[in-house]
Predict the structure.
Amino acid sequence: MESRDRNIVAELLCNINVRQQSTGKAANSSGCPVEVSIVIQGIVIGLILTVPVGPLALMCIQRSLSDGRLHGIISGFGVATADSLYATVAFLGLTAISGFILSWQDFFRFFAGLVLVIVGIRIFFIRPDTDGEKSLHESYAKDYLSMAAIGIANPLTLLFLMVTLPGFGFSFGGTSVISAAEFVTGFFCGSVAWWIFLCGTLGSVRSRISAGNLALINRVSGLFIICVGAVMLISLVLALAGISGP
């Protein structure tokens, strides 16, 4: 009896295994359940990475309030593009590229910190238009490219994704290009949706903000961005000098 029961249990386990494998293959071939799941997971991870307010978000917010919602949204598109590039590298497990980025992370951190300090100083001293005249705004291309460059210079995004993706059941290098495209599409859409909502909402109330309040927002945003950039540079110098914090 015991051997018969064991055989029945083994048979059941075997059947469950076969069903799980066949279900996975069917899902992949039909394209519906797995594709939708991967896209949704991409959207969720994109939102998790984008929603917290950091220096890049403050730069997009400042541009929305100073130059208009479209300038902020286009800047957000630049950040989303940089993040999506890192998401592609992490999802496909491109160890050569990720290894190169991480091996040069000190240079990228220095570049990002320096740019943040310079941009923060510039934002701090921006004077809002008080005479009703239209001030000179940056071009949309410059908005996009500047934020994409700063986003690419932040290797912490890659580290975040390398820690987050395994928690969602993804294995590095064990996925196809099609799955990566589906994930990155969802990731980009989630990130872009947040920037459209955030910058669009703030841009719609731009006319209700007085010049004095806008100047205060520029001062606070600029000071915060300067501090973040300075911390990045100081921590890098301390790390290179072999001095660790408490």
